Amino acid sequence: MCDLLDPPPPAEKKLSRMKKLRRTLSESFGRLALKKDDSGFDEICVTKMSTRNCQGMDSVIKPLDTIPEDKKVRVQRTQSTFDPFEKPNNQVKRVHSENNACINFKTSSTGKESPKIRRHSSPSSPTSPKFGKADSYEKLEKLGEGSYATVYKGKSKVNGKLVALKVIRLQEEEGTPFTAIREASLLKGLKHANIVLLHDIIHTKETLTLVFEFVHTDLCQYMDKYPGGLHPDNVKLFLFQLLRGLSYIHQRFILHRDLKPQNLLISDTGELKLADFGLARAKSVPSHTYSNEVVTLWYRPPDVLLGSTEYSTCLDMWGVGCIFVEMIQGVAAFPGMKDIQDQLERIFLVLGTPNEESWPGVHSLPHFKPDRFTQYSAKNLRQAWNKLSYVNHAEDLASKLLQCFPKNRLSAQAALSHEYFSDLPPRLWELTDMSSIFSVPNVRLQAEAGESLKVFGKNNIYGKGLSNIKH
Question: Which of 6, 147, 284, 332 has the greatest number of beta carbons closer than 10 A?
Fold first, then answer.
């Protein structure tokens, strides 16, 4: 609604001035040509500079600066307002910019001087759902809660798709948790079929919400559903996807640093996606010193357990080896029950207690004390995990991943070329980053032993209920 700039005059003078103003504006409107916009409504454009005409206009209203002082009005910047010269129910939408104001109205079929005005809504209206707005997502149910964040299943009002809402609580004294900042900043630049997709980021005074694609369950719950080890073909496809995602981030000098089955999401089509980048780091070159308080204990490599803070992508590859064994055998490779000492003992029992010959530099690590560890000799992995011998080349690949000396571990890219994967379709190595392996003909998950393809339990990380993995 427009307000007069001058002090309010007496009632009689005010009425007279209003009549004059109405007549002036009516004459101006009458000189305008009408322009159709894409929505089918007619549009009037009031230009601020007389040299900038709207297309299809035969004449232009005088710039606001040239209106006599007693006629000058100021525009109230609202999304919609009432026209004082029309009936109360006739509303006009004013869209303002630096140099012009446009008024949309419906053409009068009777040709009257002052046409009937109606509200016109558009996708760009502030009332429409938009990305980056909290009210653009509907919370459906709580899926889990951690020390600083709560995860909800949600639905986007923008496109109707299911999403996972990771709501991070902000403390005025502590600010935004560094893990949330790190996760958001890294995921914004990662686009890959085997990495969970970050759709949106919403920031308010109280919360920071990360909006992810909705994924039904994780590898931990999948393995819990099928104790005793997974179908060998499914292990191969899951491992291939894990290595594919890791190779992508490692080529970009990013370390995940928290690989474990709970952080590997499984979609209803069988796609594996790397998630939870809260501990991830962009690795500097040359090598940098990092914290040794990373990776869940069971999947933490011996060099980090011994206090090493200088590591590279080999940190993640140890976790890959542990997860590989767990998928095949059905139990964790090194399930430490007490502390770091116990975890190291379990590792050395299978791989042998290290020395300077097998691991150059091990004696210089902060927590390595030779007299603290029982001296074990290395064993064949099949002696610890017999099911590795059931699958061609599985033991060899596992042994090249589970190396105590970090530099001896296979890289993700090299692991993808291992003979273990030789029976997979060659097209898998030609896929673009955003292409799923299941887009290749004949690539599909197999039914697990004694079960149909119903794989999802009641307490999934991002959802509930049973779903079928499609062939």
Answer: 332
Phi/psi of residue 142, nearest 5 degrees:
-80, 135
- What CA–CA distance (Å, rounded) separates 46 from 61? 7
Q: Pick the catalytic residue: 83, 258, 303, 316?
A: 258
CATH 1.10.510.10 at 218-439, yes or no: yes
Q: Looking at residue 20, what is its pLDDT?
A: 61
8-state DSSP, 467: -
Is residue 120 within 8 Å of 91, Cβ to Cβ? no
Spans of the chain below 50 pLDDT: 1-8, 25-26, 28-124, 285-290, 454-471
Q: How many CA atoms lie within 13 A of 371 on its CB side?
A: 0
CATH ID of 134-213, from 3.90.850.10, 3.40.50.300, 3.30.200.20, 3.40.50.150: 3.30.200.20
| DSSP track, 346-375 | HHHHHH----TTTSTTGGGSTT--GGGS--
Give me the pLDDT at residue 274, please. 96
Residue 194's pLDDT is: 98
Q: Say which residues have a Cβ less than 8 Å from residue 315's Cβ, sequence separation at least 6.
A: 255, 257, 294, 295, 301, 304, 406
H or E element that contains 202:
strand 198-203
| Cis bond upstream, residue 286 (ω within 30) | yes
DSSP per position, 215-283: --EEHHHHHHHSTT---HHHHHHHHHHHHHHHHHHHTTTEE-----GGGEEE-TT--EEE---TT-EEP
In degrees, rounded to 5, the angle at the alpha carbon of residue 245 between the alpha carbons of residues 225 and 238 is 30
Whether the CB-CB separation of 376 and 352 falls below 8 Å is answered with yes
226 burial via Cβ count (<10 Å: 0-12, 13-18, 19+) = middle
How many Å apart are CA 1 and CA 327, to the nearest integer?
68
Q: What is the helix (H) or strand (E) element at residue 328, kind and residue range?
A: helix 314-329
pLDDT of residue 414: 98
What are the two backbone dihedrals, phi and then psi, of residue 204, each rounded to the nearest 5 degrees?
-125, 180
**Crossing angle (nearest 10°) for helices 394-401 and 314-329:** 140
258 is catalytic: yes
Question: What distance in Å separates the CA atoms of residue 158 and residue 124, rounded to the nearest whole number?
Answer: 12
Per domain, the residue ranges of the chain are: 1-9+32-117, 134-213, 218-439
Q: Which residues contact 204 (CB under 8 A, 6 or more apart)?
A: 134
pLDDT at residue 174, as a whole number? 63
At residue 254, the pLDDT reads 92
Quick check: helix, strand or coil at residue 91?
A: strand
